[in-house]
Amino acid sequence: MSVSERFRRIAARPVVLDVRGLGMSFPGSAGMVHALHDVSFQVRRRELITVVGASGCGKSTLVRILAGLTAHTAGEVLLDGKPVRGPGPDRGMVFQGYTLFPWLSVLKNVMFGLEMQERGADQARSEALQWLDLVGLAHKADAWPHQLSGGQRQRVAIARALAAGPRILLMDEPFGALDPQTRSTLQEHLLQIWQHVDITIVFITHDIDEALWLADRVLVLQPPDAAHPGGWLREIVEVPLPVPRTREMALSPDYRATRERLESLIHPKPPATAERLPVFKLTQAGDEVV
Ligand SMILES: Nc1ncnc2c1ncn2[C@@H]1O[C@H](COP(=O)(O)OP(=O)(O)OP(=O)(O)O)[C@@H](O)[C@H]1O
Ligand SMILES: [Mg+2]
């Protein structure tokens, strides 16, 4: 299927997530901190979109609002047409930090979301094993979280989030703490899972290559400026690459051009105070260099 045909088909799918004029301001000691300003976008059924942007531009605030963990101060968020007013089983979350319950085995961690839905223990156990199988960790069912590697823990976290049967999976830098090789393996794993599970995904990342590799569309958030009091949506960049993706695509002119476009949009500026900072002397060893 051509890339344009793929985008045409995605555009014809129903909207799952509808974010309209979203704003968020936190009260602070020196006045309000405006984290988000007038952010609007839609995510369609079974899309995987990524969100990139400089540190502090509001990515985590956005995902926490979508999860219902933080209340917004302007606009609205609709999931399947209904306003989001708090956390719910229709949204699964995977964060960067390892969030498994350390006092529960791997299997019990995945069963947790299922038992909340009042399934019988046998049913929950067999479904949890299927989810663990999907993430390639059925053989670790009886292990404890501390006995897993970082990548394995995040795979269990994905299994646990999916087991609860959400409409949408919200991921805030889930692979950010992993080494590059494990990260790349987990990216491929996520795409495989996404092909097998009917799920819509919003994935936050700092990493432009990760954003491009995973998604059809990349949302670029920008920090506040004179015209925008909070983090704002600069652009939604379409990724002109076919699926399934191969790593060789990173060499294509289309990939490079899209990457350069994203790079120029995000372009982190060094802090304005850097040049004014004194050099702090930590020792008096007498080996100063000029
Ligand atoms: N609970 C809070 N109270 C006050 N201000 C907050 C709160 N949470 C976030 N902020 C502020 O909102 C802005 C956006 O923060 P947020 O964590 O969403 O950024 P981010 O894009 O996720 O950054 P990073 O890439 O570093 O994770 C920042 O200025 C931050 O200080
Ligand atoms: Mg963040």
Structural account:
The chain has 8 helices and 10 strands. The protein is α/β, with parallel strands linked by helices and 290 residues long. It has 2 domains: 3-90 and 166-268, Rossmann fold; 97-165, no CATH class. A hairpin with a 2-residue loop joins strand 1 and strand 2 (31-44). The protein is globular. It starts with a helix and ends in a 24-residue tail after the last helix. The relative contact order is 0.17.
Topology, element by element:
Blueprint: H1 3-11, E1 15-28, E2 31-44, E3 48-53, H2 59-67, E4 74-79, E5 82-83, E6 91-94, H3 106-116, H4 121-134, H5 150-163, E7 168-172, H6 180-196, E8 200-204, H7 208-214, E9 217-222, E10 232-238, H8 253-266
Parallel strand pairs: 3-8, 3-9, 6-7, 7-8
Antiparallel strand pairs: 1-2, 1-4, 4-5, 9-10
The site of magnesium ion (MG) has 2 residues, from helix 2.
Features:
alpha/beta, binds adenosine-5'-triphosphate, six-stranded mixed beta sheet, 290 residues, binds magnesium ion, single chain
- Which residue ranges are poorly predicted, with pLDDT under 50 across at least 5 consecutive positions? none
Number of helices: 8
The CATH architecture of the largest domain is 3-Layer(aba) Sandwich
CATH superfamily of the largest domain: P-loop containing nucleotide triphosphate hydrolases
What is the compact description of this entry?
The protein is of the alpha/beta class. The protein is 33% helix and 24% strand.
